[in-house]
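Researcher: I'm preparing a figure for a lab meeting and need a structural model of a single chain. I don't have an experimental structure, so a prediction will have to do for now. The sequence is pasted below. Please return the structure as tokens so I can convert it later.
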Amino acid sequence: MVKMEKIKLNPLTLSFAGDLEKTFSENYFRRFLKQVRFAVLTGVFFYGISGVFEAQINPETRGMLWFIRYAVVCPFGLGILLFSVFRLFEGYKQVLLVGWAVAAGVGIIEMNAAAPPSMHFFYYTSLILILIITYTFLRIRFIWAASAGWFILAVYEIVAVRFGNIPAAVLENSTFFFISANVIGMAVCYSMEFYARKDFFQVHLLKDRHEKAEQKLQTAYNEVRETQKRLIQSAKMAAVGQFASGVAHEVKNPLSIIVQGIDYLERESIPANKDQAEVLKMIKEAVVRADKIVRRLLDFSSPHPLRLVPYEVTEVMRASFRMMKKQLALMKIKVTEDFTAGLPLIMIDEEQMKQVFINIILNSLHAMPEGGEITARIYAKDLTEVGNGIGRRASDLFKVGSSVLICEIKDTGLGIPGDELSKVSDPFFTTRFSQGGTGLGLTITRSIVERHGGIINIESKEGQGTGVTVILPIFKEGDQGGQQQ
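Model: Understood. Here is the structure written out token by token.
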């Protein structure tokens, strides 16, 4: 159960602090709207039906009394009922209900002042009923109901003293009961609103805790899925690596012999036969392509050791773009650089990190056959959100709050379809097989980044371009450089 000391209310108005008061008001309005309508309808009925008895007891002043009942108070109540079907009623509910209660009370007081002494008891009991309805059934807020009750009592006293012909003993007796009715009504109204707020607060806390529990459960589920994906990917990469190593070594030597044989035929046997020369050329191109795949397989299965030194990654990225300058210009691709000045150093192997950036740039080139724009950003950041490889678990590469360097390369190319995005780092997955793609570029890229202790994330929308983000740890005093496997 929720401890009551946690509920912070204004002791006079019973209001919550902050946005919770607005939420409570909306909830309170919806929860008791039917009850309020029933109370108003019942009040109008009994207020109106009393006029029938009144006409029999006091026919002399019937016209004035009926005017108050049927021309003022009852239409006022029916108007509130009609207005309550509109959403706007929520904002004016308190004012309207208090106004109707005051009008009904003052109307009774006016009728009491005009009636002969023999009828004072009739109106006296009617006024008590109005106070009961005001404090309870109308569900008016405590501070409003109390104001209405004491205002009605003040008007009664003023009219009775200045304009009424009520005997002193009767006035004292009625005043005592009116004050008692107000005090009891305030206590009841206060308790009703207090416990309504208590129930609301407990439900609000339980709902809030439920939502937080659901968020934690969803976060845990996402983390389990990410861990599972990484484990599957690691197992897949290890299996493919072993397979690739064996295949590459078995295929490399025969390919070398085939190339030597083609070179020999080109030189000695058929230099004048154009058709045969063309066939040899095609065979050689296919073998060279196969040899390229074998070399990439060897790079993938037996990566070179990292030679880590503290380095400015901005220089590495600039060098990568310089190496691709001619191809970028030829394909009419604009490059925009946004590198934060004075960035901290990171521990990297310069050549292998160049390979990372060049592979990403090449993918952007292939995605923009008709030109476009590449935006490159590098900046430092403190991680604040849980994500892929970012969290509070021991297995996470980065912890929330860690300072890292972010390298982003975004293009305005064709984008990657949603069903293919999760496969782009898989070995041998390529959409460019007919153009010579091997499906190993991003696989090797991811491997290099992970060997640097970093994370690579790829986001893309078909037709809107692709963004690749490389997250790398910042160099700290005491980090060791040198060669790493």
